[in-house]
Design a protein that fits this description.
The chain is mainly beta and 727 residues long. The strands form 4 sheets. It has a 22-stranded antiparallel barrel.
Length: 727
């Protein structure tokens, strides 16, 4: 796999891998599906001269992961047995990719960790929308907003991320979109699919449906989803605390093209009801989320065009610590009411320049967050946690993508200006607690507004050494401004953006932006039907934002009174992350293929002798697929081996425990019962292994089978049966 984008199409059931077999097929597909150049993720490969995302079938009910090779060298096509999503937020669909793992605080709170960085450091856009979540602990993480509509493609950039891929891509970028041109190219008429899944234990159900209607110049589509589950069980039969969820959502989209102009519009809503987050101090009462996008493309000629996207989102979110978990005393009840709104605009021009393609773009975005903590048993109690906290971004980039017969290069620069501001803080506690009054006054009198000016640069070179060997080199400097909670948490609370280490944190108005300098070297070696692609990377992060012991006496006094220990304060430190990821692909026979992915990362604080918190250990995932038939109908069977190492390199500052390694075996099969009917079955964790991933959070739910402070385990043996009908 080259330093190229890895695309994931999320529809309703199944996975399959494919890649183009030769350069001619690649370029024919590019000409047919020029939509892929329309999105922000247009340069789908840092090494390719054109955007190279494959077209996904919009009428099929399968989720398709498409691995795209560089046009400098063709790759063999490969496929694996389709399998359905077992996680409500589709986080499991991404966890098979090199360097990527999922950090989870609950069943709908997937946070992507890529090469040791996770949370807000990894950018995620959904259909071109940069979603601002309402929950300061990432209960409504961007990945939770994905609906399984047809043709949806998620692009994860392996290694050095092009500056055109997104703003502040310090920890990587995932762009999830359904390209408009791919939808415009569908045959006229009506088509769609419906699917139903049952999972156990835990009485889980999932229903999905898609409808699509196309005319010569227009299309209309609709998607719905319903998910529910009561609980999940660990490998030793214990109930996993607060693993319940209930969600409903839908999306409408339409498009029209006339002459050189193309328009499309999307609107999505998602309602999450009572859902657990055992690694956090509160659970989800509800999240009502909606977003919209208006897209326009002007084709000046065959190779010069302009794209404009206007978008926004609105989230209302309530969480509490009493409706889904035991509460010690009534006066400890807490209810957090939060909301977020955001608007943005992206505009990009693509034009030929010096035997390559020049991309010039502008990005504007503004988000606002509010949060008020109350006690339903005491109407006088309140904490204005975040009041009109705003984060405004203005950014512009230039990028040149050049390719020849012997090498390709992608060079880009981006300038970003980020401003953060917030209104004054207030709380009923200021009248009865001098420490709280002091913290509020210091925050209100402090420099709440600050502007960050940042310059990103990225360069990648792909050198074709010979017919079997290619060399990949890359370097970048990327920046990230602090989040609103890293600056504006004026009262020590367990707000960490999903870090969930159990400490209280206080914000820091003096924070500087992070600057990461990353280097990568790799080799792609091909022999017969086999390919091995190792990558080595090294990343030095200046002003890395992490918790350090607080010296604020008022904050220490309040936190010690409430939790029994002093808080941490968000501070600028230094960090180094290094590691490797390797992919191996090949054919064992005409009907049996193998894919193996190894990921290793090691993260250290550079200012003190300590590890970074919650870094995924080494992981080897191997998939063997067998293509066969039963009763003359096609069947695909898969055996997946998952080996994860012990993680003993842990953060002593954050009292992080080591975790044991483990090995798992998963089985799945897909049977095409009829031309329009597909049956999928799978068993995860076949041997019912009890284990807890290192990236899992620790339990904070009392009176559960899992002790307070222990890692929340992953499920034991689970089964799933799904059936889909395409019409």
């Amino acid at each position: 796999m080259k330093l190229s984008a890895i695309a994931l199409a999320v529809a309703s059931i199944g996975l399959s891998y494919s890649s183009y077999a030769d350069d001619d097929n690649l370029h024919r597909s590019l000409n047919k599906n020029s939509a892929l150049l329309q999105e922000k993720s247009a340069p789908a490969s840092a090494m390719a001269s054109k955007s190279v995302i494959a077209s996904a079938s919009t009428s099929a009910s399968t989720e398709i992961i498409t691995v795209i090779g560089s046009p400098l060298r063709s790759q063999k096509s490969e496929s694996i047995t389709p399998q359905t999503n077992m996680d409500a937020d589709f986080g499991d669909q991404l966890s098979t990719l090199p360097g990527l793992s999922i950090a989870r605080n609950g069943p709908v709170t997937a946070l992507i960790q890529y090469r040791g960085l996770f949370g807000d450091r990894v950018g995620i856009s959904v259909d071109g929308v940069n979603i601002v979540g309402a929950g300061p602990n990432a209960m409504d993480s961007p990945l939770s907003h994905v609906l399984p509509e047809p043709g949806l493609i998620a692009t994860l950039y392996r290694g050095i991320v092009p500056v055109s891929a997104g703003v502040q891509t310090l920890g990587g970028q995932v762009n999830i979109a359904s390209p408009a041109d791919a939808l415009f190219s569908i045959d006229d008429g009506f088509q769609g699919n419906i699917s139903a899944s049952a999972m156990g234990p835990g009485s889980a159900q999932q229903y999905q449906g898609n409808a699509f209607y196309a005319t010569q110049d227009s299309f209309f589509s609709g998607t719905f989803m319903h998910q529910q589950r009561t609980e999940r069980e660990s490998g030793n039969g214990e109930a996993i605390p607060n693993s319940n969820y209930l969600r409903n959502g839908g999306k409408l989209r339409m498009g029209h093209q006339i002459g050189q102009h193309q328009f499309d519009a999307s609107y999505q809503w998602l309602n999450t009801n009572e859902s657990g987050t055992p690694a956090l101090a509160m659970d989800i009462t509800f999240i009502d989320a909606a977003w919209y996008r208006l897209g326009y493309r002007y084709n000046a000629d065959a190779s010069t065009y302009l794209t404009i996207n206007v978008f926004g989102n609105s989230n209302q979110h309530i969480m509490d610590n009493f409706s889904q978990r035991p509460l010690m005393m009534a006066n400890m009840a807490r209810l957090n009411t939060t909301d977020a709104v955001a608007q943005g605009l992206d505009a990009t021009v693509f034009t030929p320049w010096k035997n390559g393609e020049l991309r010039l773009g502008v990005n504007l975005h503004k988000g606002r967050n509010n949060a008020v903590i109350s006690n339903p048993n005491n109407p006088m109690f309140f904490i204005d946690n975040f009041s009109a906290s705003t984060r405004s971004t203005t950014s512009a980039f230039a990028e040149w993508d050049y390719s020849s017969n012997t090498f390709s290069t992608l060079i880009g620069l981006r300038y970003s200006r980020v401003n953060l501001d917030a209104d004054a803080a207030a709380s009923s506690l200021t009248m009865m607690n001098e420490a709280v009054a002091s913290l509020a006054q210091n925050f209100n009198d402090g420099p709440r507004s600050k502007t960050y000016n940042m310059v990103d640069a990225a360069a990648s070179v792909f050198y074709h050494l010979n017919d079997k060997t290619d060399i990949v080199l890359g370097a970048s400097q990327k920046n990230r401004a602090p989040t609103f909670f890293e600056r504006f948490t004026w009262l020590p609370l367990g707000i960490t953006g999903g870090l969930a280490d159990g400490f209280n944190y206080i914000g820091n108005l003096e924070l500087e932006n992070e600057t990461a300098r990353q280097f990568e070297i790799g080799i792609d070696y091909t022999v017969a039907s086999w390919q091995i692609s190792p990558r080595l990377f090294y990343q030095d992060i200046e002003n890395y934002i992490a918790g350090t012991p607080s010296s604020n006496m008022a904050a220490n006094m309040f936190s010690s009174m409430m939790s029994g220990r002093a808080p941490l304060i968000w501070s600028n430190t230094d960090a180094v992350i290094k590691g490797a990821d390797v992919t191996v692909n090949g054919q064992l026979s005409d009907t049996v293929s193998l894919k193996s992915v190894l990921s290793i990362q090691h993260g250290n604080r550079d200012d003190i002798d300590d590890a970074l918190f919650r870094i995924a250990p080494e992981r080897l995932l191997t998939t063997i697929d067998w293509q066969t038939s039963v009763l003359t109908t096609p069947m695909t069977m898969s055996v997946i081996s998952e080996l994860v190492g012990r993680q003993s390199h842990t953060s002593s500052l954050q009292n992080e425990d080591s975790t044991s390694g483990y090995g798992l075996l998963h089985l799945s099969t897909q049977w095409q019962l009829h031309r329009n009917v597909q049956l999928t079955a799978q068993i995860n964790n076949l041997f019912d292994k009890f284990y807890a991933p290192h990236t899992a959070g620790v339990n904070r739910v009392m009176q559960s089978d899992i002790a307070i402070g222990d890692k929340v385990p992953n499920p034991g043996r689970e089964w799933q049966i799904s059936i889909s009908y395409r019409y």
